[in-house]
Write a structure and sequence with these properties.
heterodimer; A: 347 residues; mainly alpha; two-stranded antiparallel sheet; 2 strands; 73% helix; disordered N terminus; disordered C terminus; B: 257 residues; alpha/beta; Rossmann fold; six-stranded mixed beta sheet; 10 helices; binds adenosine-5'-triphosphate; binds magnesium ion
């Protein structure tokens, strides 16, 4: 037989499916929290909730590509860029509504994602990750250099949108709704043949072929879907920040999403949500703490701010040492569902 | 009357300098059990991999139910009605037993990307029907009721073998290829496995092509035995005839010496 292919150990998708009742209750709670944020939260809270929702969409997408299908990508933010520019251009030149811009952003990123997914057909793992840098750098180059269309380094400025006359709150509800739909759709995907084929290709591509799975098209689709999610997130980000420029879509931002996937839990939708929450909120949280500590002496702040990065980095590393499956691993333990983890690693 | 559902003729495969299969020809009669035996390294698994479309044959042809297989990519075998298991069980450890088995029906499912994301009407219906079919046709046959929703990793070896067989059967294949179904099983489980294989042949009209080293099981259940040695077919026929064939005895004694 062909060399037994390496499977990613301990991806979270192998645990027993959640009790449907617990799952339904979790979704309802999530929706209630999302709806109520503008009621109890400050303007800042609504702002953060928007950012989190956008990051959840992008992280879910990357988790489909990296966590479920096993295609390591460190060019994800470039696809957010494609979605952001595509939707911004539609808006500026054709004046299309946000819903149309989102679809265009997703379609554009999907198409470009397919092109940059081609290396995934030949190479795996770290080699593939390096190949996805091509997406990162070449798309950044296009964003920056195609000045007549993208506005170069200065980028594109967008007018404010007012959803049903509800301003920022209205916009938040749009973002939250899209995030909810995108997350539910991803979770549904893994109840069907399509999601199963992604995991099969990740774990044993030769066995997948025997079962009638076209490995080539499956990998491309998995890459394309991840990029499409990024495209939607990018289009929302453009509308949210009302500015699109190349420096929003750098390698640092791609690494941010990859960290969200790994910290949250590879191959898990819940993990994607938790990872995006952690990565978005933790730096803010640490800044608050340091600001509190620094009230005593003003120059303590400048001393402690590099510490923030170090604490943040160490937290990520610590998490991964104690729970390699990410935050979702903690949740599983709390629910007593980690029964087969040890067994799997022995095997 | 039975006809040959699978015909392998004049297949040659080389790896580097090694000739793994040379001029291999054999016919597999429909609704019968054909066993391929031979010493370690004889080329049995290589033959399976050629039929599956994993290895390229330098020459020769493989015809299944009148259609040429070697010109088609590996992932079309399932839709053609061919399924198989692997010598070192190839289950997906990151999925549950049910998900592993459902993957066996992948080629028959139609849910599109959008329908899957919505998971309303058709997609949910297809999953529901698949689950019913799985419970009715393979879970019960292979005694997997208790393991249905557990993760496959960590399950006993024999159970994993039955899960892999269930996955190969759920599509209702015309040809089932089993690479060493008895290897590593205790005697009682061997008998159960043999009975289950016999049952799908008799009751579902499946054709079986299997590889194994367990002579007792092979001779007891097969309708035809083909012997490979150093990549060549040295004998083929009814179990009793093959067992008495001097070339076969020579090959096995030579391998043991
Ligand atoms: N992918 C490969 N690359 C190189 N050589 C291979 C490859 N696959 C098989 N071979 C060689 O081909 C020959 C036949 O191997 P094969 O696995 O078909 O034997 P087998 O009859 O299945 O043996 P066993 O009973 O031990 O499973 C061996 O010499 C083996 O080393
Ligand atoms: Mg073998």
């Amino acid at each position: 037989m062909t060399a037994p292919s390496q499977s990613l150990p301990a991806a979270a998708s192998g645990t027993k499916p959640l009790d449907p009742r617990i799952e339904t209750i979790s979704w309802i709670l999530l929706v209630l929290v999302m709806i109520s944020v503008p009621v109890w939260g400050s303007i800042y809270a609504v702002y953060m909730a928007c950012l989190i929702s956008i990051n959840v969409i992008a992280t879910v997408g990357l988790n489909i590509t990296v966590g479920y299908a096993g295609l390591l990508s460190i060019g994800h933010s470039a696809f957010l860029g494609v979605g952001a520019y595509a939707s911004a251009l539609m808006w500026l030149h054709l004046g299309t509504p946000l819903a149309v811009n989102l679809v265009i952003g997703a379609v554009a990123a999907f198409a470009i994602g397919l092109v940059f997914g081609i290396p995934a057909l030949r190479i795996k793992g770290v080699y593939l990750a390096i190949a996805t840098l091509a997406a990162q750098y070449s798309l950044y180059f296009v964003f920056q250099q195609w000045t007549s269309v993208t506005g170069g380094d200065r980028g594109l400025s967008l007018p404010k949108i007012d959803v049903f006359g509800f301003g920022d709150t209205g916009f938040y509800y749009v973002v939250a709704f899209v995030a909810l739909i995108a997350t539910l759709a991803a979770r549904n995907l893994f109840r069907t043949r399509i999601g199963r084929s992604f995991i099969a290709v990740r774990e044993k591509d030769y066995a997948a072929q025997v079962l009638g799975i076209n490995v080539v098209s499956t990998k491309l689709i998995a890459f394309g879907i991840g990029a499409a999610y990024a495209g939607i997130a990018g289009a929302l980000l453009a509308a949210f920040l009302r500015i699109v420029n190349p420096d929003q879509f750098t390698l640092v931002s791609s690494v941010f999403f990859l960290a969200a996937v790994v910290v949250g839990g590879r191959g898990s939708i819940l993990g994607s949500i938790l990872g995006a929450l952690f990565m978005t909120l933790m730096p803010e949280f640490l800044r608050e703490i340091i600001a509190l500590v620094s009230i005593e002496g003003a120059d303590l702040a400048s001393l402690l701010s590099p510490l923030r990065e170090i604490i943040f980095g160490s937290l990520i590393v610590l998490f991964l040492i104690f729970e390699p499956r990410g935050l979702v691993g903690f949740v599983d333990r709390a629910l007593g569902r980690s029964e087969n983890v040890e067994a799997r690693q022995e095997h | 009357m039975t006809s040959d559902i699978l015909v392998v003729s004049g297949v040659d495969v080389t790896f580097g300098g090694i000739r793994a299969l040379s001029d291999v020809s054999l016919s597999v009669p429909e609704r019968k059990i054909t066993a391929v035996i031979g010493p370690n390294g004889a080329g049995k698994t290589t033959l399976f991999n050629v039929i599956s479309g994993f290895y390229k044959a330098n020459s020769g042809s493989v015809t299944f139910a009148g259609t040429d297989l070697l010109s088609q990519p590996a992932h079309t075998r399932s839709a053609n009605g061919i399924s198989r298991t692997f010598q070192n069980i190839a289950l997906f450890p990151g999925m549950t037993v049910a998900e592993n088995i459902k993957l066996g029906a992948h080629a028959q499912l139609r849910t599109s990307l959008f329908a899957a994301g919505l998971y309303l009407g058709p997609a949910a219906k297809e999953e529901r029907e698949l689950e019913e079919r799985m419970d009715k046709t393979v879970i019960e046959l292979l005694g997997l009721q208790d393991n249905r929703d557990s993760s496959v990793s960590g399950l006993p070896y024999g159970t994993q073998k039955r899960i892999e067989l269930a996955r190969a059967l759920i599509s209702g294949p015309r040809l089932l290829m089993l690479d060493e179904p008895f290897a590593g099983l205790p005697t009682t489980e061997k008998a159960t496995m043999a009975a289950q294989i016999r049952k799908v042949v008799d009751e579902r009209g499946v054709t079986v092509l299997l590889i194994d080293h367990d002579m007792e099981s092979i001779m007891g259940m097969s309708d035809q035995v083909v012997v490979l040695n150093f990549g060549e077919v040295i004998a083929a026929g009814a179990p009793a005839d093959v067992q008495a064939n001097p070339a076969v005895i020579e090959a096995y004694l030579g391998a043991e010496a």
